[in-house]
Design a protein that fits this description.
4 helices
Length: 235
């Protein structure tokens, strides 16, 4: 494992870590940051001094993982989870829930090698790497989905619901699922948006990737100058 902190976000490689923070307010001070926000746990905001477009010059290391995997959700727990979700839906408490699990295995080697292998063999629009050895944080992602983008006072999120090998194989159920998540995102953005500024400029567009397609929608809004990242992430 490498000893220096490194990140690859938005097509740029980050070097020379100068600040670590857990408070979203830290990013208001300026600079370019790599951000990791877990589903549960403490967010990490890492500011780097230098960002370049070129890949770091290094010899690609070796990497391997085990062939035995463990799951955080066995069959019995999965079935119980589905039934509980159905009860929530029947009660009118929710209308869409993602039941997730974690797959884990032992791995050995260089995380940058894993990231570069994904870049070469499985490119994705929102590929990324954050590796900060001093806090034992190592994340690689090959996500096609835009969670959140801020450009000035404009926010955009582009949720995906619907995946198939080709557009002809997308299912009827994908349309209402996508529309439901769009409704959820509209509600979330409305909490921080300027009144009347929430829009859906693209609904149910098909996005093509190597070997598959996604059904994607775009939701946007405008925020006032007083809205901070703390407000946005809390929404």
């Amino acid at each position: 494992m490498r000893s220096e902190a490194l990140a690859h976000v938005g097509g740029l490689w980050a070097h020379d870590l100068v600040e670590l923070a857990q408070d979203p307010g830290a990013v208001e001070s300026g600079g370019r940051w790599a951000v990791v926000i877990p589903y549960d746990g403490t967010p990490v905001f890492a500011r780097f001094a230098r960002w370049t477009a070129e890949r770091p010059a290094h010899a690609r290391g070796a990497w391997s993982c085990g062939d035995r995997w463990s799951t955080s959700l066995d069959e019995e727990s999965y079935v119980a989870g589905v039934r509980r979700i159905q009860e929530y839906i029947a009660a009118g408490d929710v209308y869409q829930v993602n039941l997730c699990r974690v797959l884990a295995t032992e791995a050995d080697g260089d995380i940058v090698t894993v990231h570069e292998a994904l870049m070469d063999d499985n490119p994705a629009p929102h590929q990324g790497l954050v590796s900060i050895p001093e806090i034992d944080l190592h994340v690689v992602t090959a996500s096609p989905e835009l969670f959140l983008r801020r450009s000035g006072n404009r926010l955009r999120t582009s949720p995906i619901k619907g995946t198939a090998a080709s557009r002809e194989l997308l299912q009827d159920k994908d349309v209402p699922e996508n529309i439901m998540i769009v409704d959820l995102m509209r509600n979330d953005l409305a909490r921080v948006a300027v009144t009347g500024s929430v829009h859906v400029p693209a609904l149910l567009r098909v996005e093509e990737h190597p070997g598959l397609v996604h059904l994607v929608s775009d939701v946007t809004c405008e925020v006032s100058e007083t809205v901070t990242w703390q407000h946005i992430l809390s929404a």
